[in-house]
Amino acid sequence: MPDNAAAIPTSGNLGRVLARRERRFAAALLAPAFLALLATTTFPLLFLVGTSTFRMDLAMPFADGFVGFENYRTLLADDRFWSSLLVSLIYTGSTVVLQVALGLALALLVMDMKRGQGWFRVIAILPVVLSPAVVGMIWRTFMLAPEFGIVDYLAINAGLGSKNWLGDPLLAMVSVIVIHTWQWTPFAFMVLLASLASLPEDIYEAARLDRASAWQRFRRITLPLLRPAIVMVVIMRTMVALTAFAAIFTVTGGGPGTATEILNLYAYRKSFTELSIGYGSALAVALLVVTILISGVLFALRRAK
Amino acid sequence: MSGRGQVRFDGIVKMHGEFAALKGVTFDIEPGEFFALLGPSGSGKSTTLRILAGLDAPSAGRVFIDGQDITAADACDRDIAMVFQSYALYPHMTVYENIAFPLEMAKMSKAEIAPAVREAARKVAIEHLLERKPGQLSGGQQQRCALARAIVRKARLFLLDEPLSNLDAKLRLETRTELKKLQRSLGVTAVYVTHDQEEAMTLADRMAVFMAGEIQQIGRPADVFAKPNSIDVAAFIGSPPMNLIPARYKDGGVEIAGRRLETGLKEAGERNVVAGIRPGAVRIAAGGIPAVVELVEDLGDTAILDLDCSGISIRARVSDGDVPSEGAALSITARPADIHLFDATTRRRL
């Protein structure tokens, strides 16, 4: 009799048994996706960090071997690393600021459009769906080519004369910033437009009756209410801009010289042009650390207040 | 503050495409008056308030405040405060910041703002909630916050757009009383939009009854209740609404269900009319219209009877003491002064 009593689960341990079964079932369902993620993201990441502690030079394989933090020490003393980091930060900062400012301005304009809003949205979203490599090619040939490119044609007609848009270091930097901004401003525009559309109309009417001017309504009501959306756009665009590659690669290849060589491109050149895989990996890890640090600061800002 | 806040609406028309939301609305509001705009949904009362606030522009007509034509003036130049139906509080600001906002916009110094905000909050009993955000307040507290924001800057006109409609029944009754006291203590002109005739009756010094974009009647609530000037007003004011019975008028009396009832109208002749008798004016007495009690709705202190008078439905309100049972046969009548007569064609009061 006592044996039977032990075999029959009471309501308490029946619940525990069911919960355990459910956990097992959930784990079984999760496992394939989890393993795929491990294999495609975590493992390569760990492999990258591991590689960065080796000297792995395909041009001189006889010198390969474990070097610990040697690659990182070299990196800290490498002027080209610091200059590419600076280029990355300038590129990221300016493109993100421009995207948010232009996206917000466009969203505010479109909100007041009585007709054609739908068409505007469709047209505006087109650059986003293009591959960055295609965008780079379009700008390099169709827009910026000397004499024949639209931008150069406009510059000539404006009396500025033909410019070597991708050959001059400053103009090349401005060009790649403009290209990235052109392609990704619609993203900021769409997110901010959706946020603007969700703001209640009556608080603006209340603000008008409270004698707030149009600028005060924008600064005291619109901006604070859009803050979560703006911060989210800044975070997402910063992460993407820091790791941008294809457009710059196709337009300038990092040149002229290293004028537009962002950290990502430098890591690529080191790894696949100079075949210094170990040092290239250390550069990639450095970019990862920079991205995590900046994202961390932005997320902290998002949570603040 | 007396002498401020006089309003004149002069032939205001508001068109939405082909649809006329307001068809030439004219009325005056005296300084310090509590004026209600009463009407069913879509009657044009909120449009009237929005035009007065400057949030919408009229298609024709002129608006005057204190004798000054403000038809083309922007909302921010009208010196008007408003409580919205949704309260329209700034969700990212605390209660303190919400109340202080209109004062900041008027470029008052922080030293002047702080006592003014606390005084306004004290008047509506929310001084303990100043650090909270609107999302952390109950509906009633939000409503008080909106009231405080409206009264803090001592505007010349105080507009209220169905401010009680989002509150539960008990809180609505409490707030109604407080609102009236607040308006009296401030002495400010208030314009109050509501579809609830009980609110208008209890709060307003005078009211305008809106129907289909037109004002049907303006007057003191008691006068509008006692002498509705059209069938539409008679049907709208009063709960339960007035019994409106098609009848034949002849030499001072009306014939309903084959029985003659004397009326207050002493006019010779014969015509088709609509006789109106309020449920509370129906009396159970011998020699009147025979009726059968179809349904009794017991409200505690009174009861509403649904009566069938030879095919005509009439509702009567009787006091708790003498409630007949369902199915009982009785006879009803009304005093001549309690029978309202309306022209069957023009629908106007005779």
Characterization of the model:
The complex is a heterodimer of chains A (305) and B (350). Chain A is mainly α. Chain A has 2 domains: 2-51, no CATH class; 77-303, Orthogonal Bundle (MetI-like fold). Chain A is 76% helix and 1% strand. Chain A is built from 13 helices and 2 strands, in the order ααββααααααααααα. Chain A has a two-stranded antiparallel ribbon. In chain A, helix 8 (169-197) packs across helix 10 (214-242). The model of chain B has no long low-confidence stretch (mean pLDDT 91). The longest helix of chain B has 18 residues, at 169-186. In chain B, helix 2 (95-105) crosses helix 3 (110-123), helix 2 (95-105) packs parallel to helix 4 (139-151) and helix 3 (110-123) crosses helix 4 (139-151). Chain B has helices at residues 45-53, 95-105, 110-123, 139-151, 169-186, 197-203, 221-226, 231-236, and strands spanning 7-16, 19-29, 34-38, 60-65, 68-69, 80-83, 157-161, 189-194, 206-211, 214-219, 243-250, 253-256, 259-262, 270-277, 283-298, 302-309, 312-319, 329-333, 339-343. In chain B, the strands form 4 sheets. In chain B, strands 6-7-8-3-9-10 form a 6-stranded mixed beta sheet, with helices on both faces. Chain B has a 5-stranded antiparallel beta sheet with strand order 13-12-11-14-19. Chain B has a 4-stranded antiparallel beta sheet with strand order 2-1-4-5, with helices on one face. The A-B interface holds A 200, 202-203, 205-213, 216, 220-221, 224-225, 227 and B 53-55, 74-78, 80-82, 84, 86, 88-92, 101-102, 105-106, 149, 153.
